[in-house]
Design brief:
By secondary structure, the protein is of the alpha/beta class. It has one domain: Rossmann fold, CATH 3.40.50.720. Helix 6 links the parallel strand 5 and strand 6. Helix 1 crosses helix 8 and helix 5 runs parallel beside helix 6. The longest helix is centred in the middle third of the chain and has 22 residues. It is globular, with a radius of gyration of 18 Å. The model has no long low-confidence stretch (mean pLDDT 97).
């Protein structure tokens, strides 16, 4: 298949592009290399993709998507380009409307115009708001607690509207705390490992519990959904909530650094926990990498960069 990925130099986008290329698909990515975090890491990922034979386009999805889709003639389009992160959305909510809602509508319009058969949208566990227990897809009711979550939930509703109005085949993935080598520097596990290796204190905000999901499980699930032509909304998680404090304390003990605690950040939820039964039934999704194994892979990657 001929597949396009927006945000293809990002953490999940680049890992997905690598997997799909290895499976024999023709893969093209578009990425604006925005400054949410230092672009050096994105450029490293893009360089590796180019080495593999993935086509890289450095351009703004808002303005360049139509031409990119015209040249790509895609059978499927994965929309991963977005502005992530809860804290930033409290400071700049209008920017999140532009990058997470408006951009999604731009993608949906392009898919309609170019008759792209399948569209896959990357959403977030944040759409569930402040809830406890293993969350199934129907438990997202719009009662969110951050502008970022509101933007993702709103984008989901646009996907539903375009599917109902125009017959687009749309799959929405709700990702649960994705981690792994070459991850996002603002995420807790990346930050903890970097701080520990530098001998710095680890800082934990509140007492959060997270369903940490290894990147290979995420991209495997996305490929399975592509192969099954599954449509609908699906959680992709690990089904195994873990205490962030306990992980920080384990790393602190291992590397001889202190762990400090401060208040929970505004907009953060206390727990994420995925029920992935719908994904299992629809396309055979089964997370396989334990947190212990995934952390060791991350640490090995970070040590290679010291």
């Amino acid at each position: 298949m001929n597949i396009g990925i927006t945000g293809g130099a990002g953490f999940i986008g680049a890992a997905l592009a690598t997997r799909l290329h290895a499976s024999g698909h023709t893969v093209s990515v578009i990425d604006a290399f925005t400054d949410y975090y230092a672009s050096d890491l994105k450029r490293e990922r893009a360089a590796e993709l180019a080495r593999l034979g993935v086509t890289i386009s450095e351009a703004d999805v808002h303005t360049a998507l139509n031409d990119w889709c015209s040249s790509g003639q895609f059978d499927a389009l994965f929309h991963l380009a977005a502005l992530p992160g809860v804290p930033g959305s409290l400071r700049e909510p209008h920017r999140y409307i532009k990058e997470d809602i408006d951009m999604t509508v731009t993608v949906l319009e392009a898919a309609k115009r170019h008759q792209i058969q399948q569209v896959f949208f990357a959403s977030s566990s944040s759409v569930y708001g402040e809830q406890t227990g293993a969350l199934s897809e129907q438990q997202a009711t719009g009662q969110v607690v951050s502008p970022y979550a509101a933007a993702k939930y709103s984008a989901e509703t646009f996907c539903n509207a375009y599917q109902n109005l125009y017959g687009l085949q749309i799959t929405t993935f709700r990702f649960f705390t994705v981690y792994g080598p070459s991850g996002r520097p603002d995420m807790a596990l990346y930050r903890f490992i970097e701080q520990a290796l530098r001998g710095q204190d680890l800082v934990v905000y509140g007492d959060p519990v997270r369903d940490f999901t290894y990147i290979d499980d995420i991209t495997r699930g996305m490929e399975q959904a592509l192969q099954a032509r599954a449509t609908g909304t699906f959680n992709l998680g690990a089904n195994q909530p873990e205490s962030v404090r306990k992980i920080a304390e384990m790393l602190g003990t291992r590397y001889g650094v202190a762990v400090t605690y401060t208040d929970r950040r505004e907009g953060d939820v206390s727990m994420t926990w995925s029920n992935t039964e719908a994904a299992r039934q629809a396309f055979g999704y089964m997370p396989a990498v334990t947190l212990t194994e995934g952390l060791e892979r991350m640490i090995t990657w970070h040590l290679g960069r010291v």
